[in-house]
Protein: Diacylglycerol O-acyltransferase
Organism: Streptomyces rishiriensis
Amino acid sequence: MTADDLLAPLDLAFWNLESAEHPMHLGALGVFTAQSPTAGAHAADLLAARAAGVPGLRMRIRDVWRPFDRSEPFDLRRSLAFGGATREADPDFDPLHHVTLHAPAADFQAEAGRLMERPLERGRPPWEAHVLPHRDGARFAVLFKFHHALADGLRALTLAAAILDPMDLPAPRPRPAEPARGVLPDVRRLPGLLRGAVSDVGRALDIGASVAVHTLGMCPTPALTAAPTGTRRTAGVVIDLDDVHRIRKVAGGTVNDVLIAVVAGALRRWLDERGDGSEGVVPRALIPVSKRRPRTAHPQGNRLSGYLMRLPVDDPDPLRRLDTVRTAMDRNKDAGPGRGAGAVALLADHVPALGHRLGGPLVGHAARLWFDILVTSVPLPSFGLKLGGNPVTEVFPYAPLARGQALAVAVSTYRGRIHYGLVADAEAVPDLDRFARALTAEVETLITACGS
């Protein structure tokens, strides 16, 4: 075990948040045009063959129950890893265990929901690929599942791209090599290490105070919270990126502001249609923010913070809702991702490994105290993806669903279209398709309000 093998603190937090009854993996459903009736079966063979040659897909997570091996050079980070976990290559890795070809399906989303319920095997590399041929023979889909401890959205994209048809991606920037470590720490570094530790404590207290201030007095939104059942339902919505730009040019804000405002308007419509009512409803949305440096040579390890904002679901005016979202996002950007309840992810860097193991279940149960709904953006390449020469036509990202929450929204832009991927607790939200239709209706409402 080396220090570079250890899970980053936030990865370790994700690893300890889930349970067998409440999976916390992320996913993506890609829909392909099939060039032949056997395209799905051929795709499954390709995925298994290519996965064998991708080192990142061979990595499993192993718990660490001893600080370090005395025969190895001293490493302060490794010595504090008791109760943590490490990534290591699985000597028994078999890609056929991770790639499954299913019987032809009539509804990709229904199958995806059923498969998202199943937790990943923690004793193996925590990822799966499920190939779903369609009954019409003209399409097939691939559902990728990754545990957040193995890969966040950007890293999952990199791993998935490695088993799709080859693409021309920019080369990563090399990371400078670290100097060799001796058996004992360099005494000249001790003052710096101590200053760093004190700084970490101060930073943790600062973040913790910010989280407490921004969550004080906030009550969960009942319609978006639920007793966790571990069941899953998924849905997908596709809208035209040009429509979003038309709204943005008239009403102002960014593309992301418009997409968040669409969620707010859809929630209003959905709550009113199901009889819950939207009056006085202002749910707290967590908007994750990636802190990863672009084109890094070692992208493993989550680098996340987030913004917290109130969605103006109770406002009947669509343009006013968009203006409220834009103002809140501007305020969040000015404050930075280290402030507010969204910064709770940064606290992971200041918690010892054993603390994550002992406190993970408690943090998981407390998620709904911080936010009601996750609205996250997952980057995708602008060029076309293919598998066995079969082009991808749609890509629906699926975010992990926090314990006690009923709905999570992920958004990706692909080939000029916006793809909303929805994940819900199937028992709490049996009418997820109604919310999906509300998203489409809200885009039309905004276009009409803008006079376009």
